[in-house]
Amino acid sequence: MSKADVLLMGPFYQPKLDELETAYHCHRYWTSRDRDGLVASLADRCEIVVTNGGRGIRADEMARLPRLKLVACFGVGVDAIDLGYARAHGIAVTNTPDVLTEDVADMALALLLGTVRRIAQGDRFVREGRWLEGGMPVTHSLQRKRVGIVGLGRIGRAIAKRCEAFNTEIGYTGPNRKSDAAYPYFPDVVALAQWADVLIAACPGGKATYRLVSRAALAALGPDGVFVNIARGSVVDQAAMIELLASGALGAAGLDVFDDEPKVPAELIALDNVVLHPHQGSATHPTRAAMGQLVLDNVAAYLAGRPLVTRV
Ligand code: 8YV
Question: Which pTM does this prediction carry?
Answer without folding.
Answer: 0.97
